[in-house]
Amino acid sequence: MRDGINLTKAGRPAIVFVHHHFERAARAQAKGLGVPDLRLYVYQQYTPGVDSLRHEEEKAVVAARAFGGMLT
User: What are phi and psi of 39, to 5 degrees?
Assistant: First the structure.
């Protein structure tokens, strides 16, 4: 988070990857540190024994599509 915030404040593009469990905290921290529009990519954290390899592959495809759109 701090790296993304510092990069954004320095005028560099940044996207911070955040587990879905920490999304609210990440948004609050970004807002509190003066970067409320910090770009966050929120993803589902892997759950051992529950998530299958196929499920992880599907999440990777979704992430690749979403991430590409965040770069513009």
Answer: -80, 125
Report pTM.
Answer: 0.73
Three-state SS across the chain? CHHHHHHHHCCCCCEEEEEHHHHHHHHHHHHHCCCCCCEEEEECCCCCCCCCHHHHHHHHHHHHHHHHHHCC
The owner of tokens 């690749």 is: 64
What residues does 46 pair with on adjacent strands? none
Using one digit for the tens of pLDDT, what is the confidence trace for 28-48? 999 999 999 999 999 877 777
